[in-house]
Amino acid sequence: MDKQYILAIDHGTTSTRAILFDHECNMVDIVQKEGKVEYPKSGWVEQDALAVWLDILYVIAGIINKSGIKPDQVAAIGISNQRETSVLWDKKTGLPIGKAIVWQSRQTSEICDRWKEEGLEEMVRQKTGLRIDPYFSASKIAWMLENIEGAREKAENGDLMFGTMDSWIVWNLSGEERHITDVSNASRTLLCNIETLEWDDELLEAFHIPKTILPEIVPTSFNYGTTAPYHFFGSRIPICSMVGDQQAALFGQLCLEKGMVKNTYGTGGFLLMNTGDKIVRSKNGLLSTVAWKIGDHVTYALEGSIFVSGSIMKWMRDELQLFDDVKVTSQMANNAKAQDDLFIVPAFVGLGAPYWDDKAKASIVGLTLGSNRNQIVKAGIESMAYQAKDVMDAMEKDSNLKISKLKVDGGATSNDYLLQFQANLCQCALERFKVTELTALGAAFLAGLAIGYWKLENLKIEIDQTFEPNKKKEEMDLHFENWHRAIASCQAFKPVQVEGNGHV
Ligand SMILES: Nc1ncnc2c1ncn2[C@@H]1O[C@H](COP(=O)(O)OP(=O)(O)O)[C@@H](O)[C@H]1O
Ligand SMILES: O=P(O)(O)OC[C@H](O)CO
Predict the structure, then answer these.
(1) Tell me, what's the pLDDT at 504?
(2) What is the ipTM score, two decimals?
(3) 246 is in an annotated binding site
(4) Cα angle at 452 between 217 and 60, to 5 degrees?
(5) Which residues of the chain have pLDDT under 70?
């Protein structure tokens, strides 16, 4: 028999990738496609779900073509995806009825305020492990039902389907056969009870969301069915994992034991700790979430979600045009003449964990006439590390554990300046791995386990580089104190609404 591979499809906020892994856990080939993110109004973030589906087809065709393997050499497909981003589509036509609302979007802030005024917060926290915030899917669904013409009527007639991107991709990939979501994705909707792992009727009623539009909740690693042959060059390939990308990275980092922690620096930043079969309820601004369900066994995680991490660099490149390629930014930061009181708080879409301030606006503080682009870039990179340290401190308090090692991944970890600064700030070692695509590897592992391609003991990853602290804690603590002053000044800025203001 020809050599078999596992194909991971990793759909992130800014790009979609198809990656082939072999039995030795090596990355054999990759095809990547940048996606389009739209910002139609202040705080709004949207995507065209149909364009996402076309990107999936593009990377599938691309990887088969580029790698030269035969389609039936793919033993199974695993899918990891940006979470919470929500789309509604028409059951009859298969077409989205509006734009997908992206996880970063603040456009549903008013709905969340309303739910808070109705006193729903404590019930939501208890049932879901999350909090009322525009980040999660529920207010996005409610917004679409309220604002897209005919949506509620379609929902009531049973003609409407909801999905996070995992559901949307599998619905299409399976030839419209399977309307499913896995528990790791369901646990991010604000509609799933994290103890029963089922849609919660009381929440659905409180949010006026009809159950008929929801997908079936399934385990994270399972043979769900196959691709439609016309989407995979005539082959029916088993689809064997669906997993939220941050939980996928936790699995890909082999954080399989209670207390193990990873941090991903992608569009956003996400620190997750495996908490085993226990739900750890946060008192310090973190979230309790499902990591994965394999067979009947459920693993939970504690999570700190940072809304803007690597995307600050994209903003500096595309909007400020401070450089052409993010690759040069580590060197720019190294070249920056020390100006230690320049800070950027990247609250472009409010602040996530541990502050949860959906009205905060981004700010740059500490500018002087001598400030230059290198220093601004350096402050941008450092903002990723400061935000991660805030979450790490909260996680240590909530878990009563000292984090002595941080496994890292995500696009921005190619930035050595970032990782060294993070090691110094947290006074702990950071491990970066040879396979950088650990989200995709996690999805591949979960798919491969479902069909017996791998056993748990076969799974392995190799360290590329360890970053050890090389600066004193006392010095770094002073920088961290200044960061908190920058946060306070950013949160204090609450502009009044100006009538007739044409700005968006
Ligand atoms: N060398 C770098 N330094 C800083 N940021 C980087 C670097 N390379 C990529 N990034 C940032 O990482 C992000 C992409 O990471 P990735 O893990 O691919 O994101 P996602 O999965 O969210 O699409 C982009 O926002 C980009 O600006
Ligand atoms: O696109 P990413 O990889 O930053 O991930 C987005 C998260 O899943 C949002 O919760």
Answers:
(1) 43
(2) 0.97
(3) yes
(4) 70
(5) 339, 500-504
Q: How many CB atoms lie within 10 A of CB 418?
A: 27
Exposed e or buried b per residue across 290-307, where buried means at least 16 C-beta atoms within 10 angstroms of its C-beta: bbbbbeeebbbbbbbbbb
Q: For the purposes of burial, counting CB atoms within 10 Å of the CB of 1, is it exposed (0-12), middle (13-18) or buried (19 or more)?
A: exposed
Pocket lining for ligand 1, CB < 6 angstroms: 12-15, 266-267, 310-311, 313-314, 326-327, 329, 410-412, 414-415
- For ligand 1, atom 19, the nearest C-alpha belongs to 266
pLDDT attached to residue 380:
97
Q: How much distance in Å is there from the Cα of 265 to the middle of ligand 1?
A: 7
Compute the distance between CA of residue 89 and CA of residue 420 in angstroms, rounded to an integer. Answer: 45
Closest CA to 138 of 120, 156, 150, 153: 120
CATH class name, domain 5-245: alpha beta
Residue with the nearest Cα to atom 5 of ligand 2? 82
What is the pLDDT, as a whole number, of residue 341?
A: 87
First to last CA, the chain: 59
Q: Could you tell me which of 374, 286, 362 has the C-alpha nearest to residue 328?
A: 374
For the entire predicted model, the pTM comes to 0.94
Residue 442 marked ligand-binding: no
Task: Give the residue among 368, 379, 397, 296 at the shortest CA–CA distance from 332.
Answer: 379
**What are the pLDDT digits (tens) for 102-159?**
999 999 999 999 999 999 999 999 999 999 999 999 999 999 999 999 999 999 999 9
Q: Where are the domains of the chain?
A: 5-245
Q: Quick one: pLDDT at residue 194?
A: 96
Cα distance between residue 488 and residue 502, in whole Å: 28
Cα 249 to ligand 1 centroid, rounded to whole Å:
15
234 DSSP 8-state letter: T
- Say how many C-beta atoms besides its own lie within 10 A of residue 121's C-beta: 14
Kindly report, residue by residue over 434-459, the tens digit of the pLDDT.
Answer: 998 999 999 999 999 999 999 999 89
Strands 74-81 and 238-244, bridge-based pairing: parallel
Neighbours of 52 (CB within 10 A): 23
- Per the CB < 8 A criterion, the answer to whether 343 and 483 are in contact is yes
